Amino acid sequence: MKLLRYGRPGKEKPGMLDPDGRIRDLSGKIPDLDGQALSPRSLAKLARLNPSRLPLVPGRPRIGPCVASVPKFVAIGLNFADHAKESGVKPPSEPVVFMKSTSCIIGPNDNVMLPKGSQKADWEVELGVVIGTRARYVSKSAALDHVAGYCVVNDVSERDFQLHGTGQWVKGKSSDTFGPVGPWLVTADEVGNPQRLDMFLNLNGERMQTGNTKTMIFDIKTIISYLSRFMTLEPGDIVTTGTPPGVGMGMKPAVYLKPGDHMRLGIAGLGEQRQNVVAFAK
């Protein structure tokens, strides 16, 4: 299934994409697409629905983040060997973990707003993993059993905030609008093997990133098992799993986002995002 949320910010309703690519309203079946709706039992009920019998959503509504009330937004850094190389660092021996504030989450096509003082805002197309059942000290062999589905994430980053001064990466990863998520949550059964997905990102029509999840240093099952040693992963948590090469910081000379830029990015089978970059506004 391809599940989504549509409507004005803060007023989104749950929906399902039908076989013809039309949005069907799920608000009569579930209150929202949150952790409770992502349990195996709930997803099984949704899978038994006939989309043609659900109300058709007219027009072209705004698409919101595909998960509501996200408990945690966990990220893995430097998880593609060629991205680590372009960043000038040695590939890590274990996953690099940081957090993104949940307040940065926006819809897949909402504007990305540069924060005050931003000079080095960057892009990162990533595979997001959405947790469906609680994961605590899980083995690699059982890790994927805890996944509800997958989505596209743009891990927008302010490199100066991230890397200079004291503190952790979270400073450069959590500005408002720095977490576009969606358009869809594609259930795990439909995705199949998450380690064979093509990824891309274009900036102003020019290809910047081309990659495939098969080149991850740490695969999805390893990441989930590893994280579950240090924190309990809850239903509705999003884990974003690293980016392929082609980020602005790695170019010579470096290229960073500026107002008026346009990003288009996507992952095979998971849909595409499109964002305009705008200056800070209250």
Key words describing this protein structure:
single chain, 282 residues, alpha+beta, 9-stranded mixed β-sheet, 5-stranded mixed β-sheet, 7 helices, 18 strands, 14% helix
Describe the protein in words.
The strands form 4 sheets. The protein has a 9-stranded mixed beta sheet. It contains 7 helices and 18 strands. With 282 residues, the chain is of the alpha+beta class. The model has no long low-confidence stretch (mean pLDDT 96).
Helix content estimate: 10-25%
Return the average pLDDT rounded to an integer: 96
Q: Spatial order of the strands in the main sheet?
A: 3-2-1-13-10-9-16-4-5
Determine the N-to-C terminus distance: 37 Å
The backbone outline, from C-alpha atoms, is globular
Describe the sheet with the most strands. Answer: 9 strands, mixed
Give the SSE order as H and E letters.
EEEHEHEEEEEHEEHHEEHEEHEEE
Which parts are unreliable, with pLDDT below 50 for 5 consecutive residues or more?
A: none
Task: Tell me what portion of residues adopts beta-strand conformation.
Answer: 25-35%
Helical element count? 7
Rg, nearest Å: 18 Å
Number of β-strand runs: 18
Q: Specify the structural class.
A: alpha+beta
